[in-house]
Structure formats: C-alpha cells, structure tokens
TrEMBL record:
This is ATP-dependent 6-phosphofructokinase. It comes from Psychromicrobium lacuslunae. Catalyzes the phosphorylation of D-fructose 6-phosphate to fructose 1,6-bisphosphate by ATP, the first committing step of glycolysis. The keyword Kinase applies. It catalyses: beta-D-fructose 6-phosphate + ATP = beta-D-fructose 1,6-bisphosphate + ADP + H(+).
Amino acid sequence: MKIGILTSGGDCPGLNAVIRGAVLKGIKIHGQEFVGFRDGWRGVVEGDIMDLPRQSVRGISKQGGTILGTSRTNPFDGGGPEVIKAHMDRLGIEAIIAIGGEGTLAAAKRLTDVGLKIVGVPKTVDNDLDATDYTFGFDTAVQIATEAIDRLRTTGESHHRCMIAEVMGRHVGWIALHAGMASGAHAILIPEQKVSIEQIAEWVLDAHERGRAPLVVVAEGFVPEHLESPHSERGLDTFGRPRLGGIGDQLSSQLEERTGIETRATILGHIQRGGVPTAYDRVLATRLGMAAIDSVVDGHWGTMVALSGTNIVHVPFEAALGNLKTVPQSRYDEASILFG
Ligand code: F6P
C-alpha cells in the first residue's frame, strides 16, 4: 500500500518525528511505501509529491520544521475531492495521513465524508485541540518561552524595570499559563480571562513594592477588559484571520503610565515554533506517527490519533472539531494565587 503524508498549517516542533515514526513503522512492520505531499494540501491538489524512502527520515526526529514543507492552502480551493482522487489514482496513493490543526482536520473530515481514505494526526503549538490531552510542539514552545522569560527577568532586575513577555496563543492561553508559571510571572494574561488594566497595574505594583522586577506574561490573544477583540494591526492571514501580535507593547505604555515603572515588552513570536523539539515532544510525535499507521492498517478513516493520559487512542475527527480546549477556570484560579 502506498501512503501519502502531508503537514499543513503553521509548523510545529515534532512534525518530522511524526513523519519518521509513521514511515519506519509502515515500512518495517507492514511493507508499506510512502510519499510526501509538498506544502500541505497544496501538494495534494496539485499532485506534487516527493518519495519518502527509509533513508529520507534518517535522524530527522530532532529537526525542527517539516521536511515536507507546509502551507495554509485549503484543499477545496482549486481542488476538491475529484481533483484529489484523480491525483491519488494516477500516483497510486491509497491513503493519506494528514498532520495538522483544526482547519486541516476539518478539511480532512469533509474529504473523508465523500470517500477519501484519510487519518489525522493533531498538530497545534497552542495546544488548543480538543480530544487530546497534549499536542506535540507545545512542550517545546513552553520550554523556549520559559528560557526567554528567565532571561528577561535578569535584565529586568538589573534595570528595576517591569518586563512583559508576549507569547503565542491565539484563542487559548496554555503557553502563557505554563511558561508564566514555570518562570514565576507576577501576572499571566490569557484569551480566556478578561482582566482590567487596573488589576494588572496592581499586580505589577505589588511585586515592585517587594523589591522585585515585575514580570508579566501575556498571550497574543489576550483581550483587556475594556476592549472587544484581540490586538491586531497586521492585516489578515490566508484564512482571513487577523494576524495577532502587539498586545505586549500596548500594555507596556499603559502600565508604565499607571505605575510609573519603566516597562519593556518583548514579542517572542515564531521563535517559539522554531528549532529542535524537546525529548518529550519527539517521543509523543513518534508515538502518534506510529499509531497513525495502525489507523491506516485498520481502515479507521475519519479518525485521528490522540493522547489520553499516557496512552495513544483513536478518536473521530468530530471529537476534535468545534470545541477548543481552553484553559479551565480552575487552572487559572490556581495560577493566580501566585500573581502580584
Ligand atoms: O496556531 C498557531 C499559531 O502559532 C498561533 O499562535 C499564531 O497566531 C499563528 O499560529 C501565527 O501564524 P503564522 O505562522 O501564520 O504567522
């Protein structure tokens, strides 16, 4: 059986480990053959593939990015099931392993509903997909953010400044919550929780009065109490979603004005998605890739592999779609005991 693999949407540390896990298990255990679609769904709708023999995945689980390339192409734009089926038949590809986030899995579901053989592997650095406890890449992003915030803290302490670290997290604040807790932030601001500037300033002043350099960690999707939507001044992405980023700078001037403490903001941005995955993410991603092969062998089309506790399970696409995995109130309340 020949299987096509694609990586779609924003890249994420661990994508290559998924590919390696799937290819090695498929070749070694089932004698399968693999190709990669270049740049996500673009490669599928254009029939643009590369061979994935065993040697092509040698040593790649520690590599950041994706050897296949990625894009935010929608397979229904200029493609659709007929075009994709025709390419698959011509290239002798029977099944697809789609590694991607909500948009990718939603498209995969629509294609599976009309008869294409697709299984999914959930991918999101934000950790916002439902039906899986954690996604690979999240641990790496938290590690990178924590290291960066630790560095901001020492420069903040030297200058007696308030430092703001802006991290990724479009709809959910998992990266901010974990990196903020790990680095001992005096305030963590996430999209799920509206907080007033007055409250943030109070936390900053509390920390300052104890002789600390106040440290604020804010997710890019955070919306202060007096606003309606996240800060965005960079236009739209290819999915028509506002490009986020910049809330840290906005808070910086507002907090400096209110507290009188010199304040600096740093946007960590794509640094959080680049470079080598942590050992945890390599292991999780490898296991997910191998489990995706089991789904293919068992013909579990329309399902994705997922982490439940420490086990890898198989769940229908629907389970992951529709609901975001937000930070529960209890987790925020727990973290906020440490604010100020
Ligand atoms: O969905 C993951 C994510 O990293 C978000 O946190 C962020 O808003 C977005 O991707 C950035 O995407 P792009 O790579 O298109 O700038």
